């Protein structure tokens, strides 16, 4: 069905605007009148919105986690307030700024209005609502606690966004400094050093080794810089292509976990995500085997995913969770022991939640410490590189001055 963009006024005189899916323009106007909206303008929606609606019917669209968290939080508040499910989806779909996500929500509303369960309607849009989301919604519908499940989902997504943001913040600073250093050094070698080289050639002075090295680097950058850029691009493409393979993902993820300092942070992030996800699923009534399968697929690291799948297979044979986890040698011994205590006391979901809280705090501390350590290191690195080039270019001038005196 086509999408129509409209503007109008409510009975109270408030100006409103939005989009409405309908068979015809007259049908859209009639639907709006039933909602006591006097239409002042309506026309076919832009191609972007129409394309988004079409895409929504093909697995949905990838939505930023922040948008999904806000949607889930608002959805839980509306359900808790007693609003009908279809009306909640209608309101949320109209106010959502992300066009693709808005189209998905409205498509879900159509399916629910036609009699489908909310979880089944969401499962049609796997790119937007992953298996964790739809399975928890299904558990909430089955238990009649949809508002509670939505609150748990909102908390889970918000914590996941915070955790992901902390890892990004740990990476942004060093990457930014390295990029700035590369740009500054490249500009100096490309524009400044050739001027000095011509000056020294005119003077006929004997150049010291550091100066000759810098001039050689400058000549190489000017002559073959484009080859280096192409090589870097091909290297990046090659690494990405290798990572897209099953073997490549396992190799690179394993190397990341073994990286000094960063590997420790990534391992803590993976443990926190595993515990938080499994705890949320178990608390919501999702069976343990389904929960482990979903947790493995959302682990974000192939090595962690393999360890969880091995554990799941062992549980199917009747074993406990802690035993197989210990044998994988991926999870810290403290985590395994706490999970064992949780199994013994029958409070595994609560124990997993406590472990997740602990490791999220550990990630906070580790990232803060890393950034504190890296700031002076990066400044010193940039100073040594740029300062070394400057000193190398001034050495011949110092030699000439000393000879004149």
Indicate the percent of residues in helices. over 70%
Mean pLDDT: 81
Assign the CATH class of the largest domain. Answer: Mainly Alpha
How large is the count of helical segments? 16
Describe the structure.
With 405 residues, this protein is mainly α. The chain folds into 2 domains: 1-45; 160-405, Receptor-associated Protein (Up-down Bundle). Helix content is 77%, strand content 6%. It is built from 16 helices and 3 strands. It has helices at residues 25-34, 47-56, 65-80, 85-95, 99-113, 118-123, 131-143, 146-203, 209-243, 246-258, 262-283, 288-297, 302-316, 322-328, 333-345, 348-404; strands at residues 3-10, 15-21, 37-44. The protein has a 3-stranded antiparallel β-sheet with strand order 2-1-3. The longest helix is centred in the middle third of the chain and has 58 residues, at 146-203. The radius of gyration is 29 Å and the shape is flat. The model is unreliable at 47-53 (pLDDT under 50).
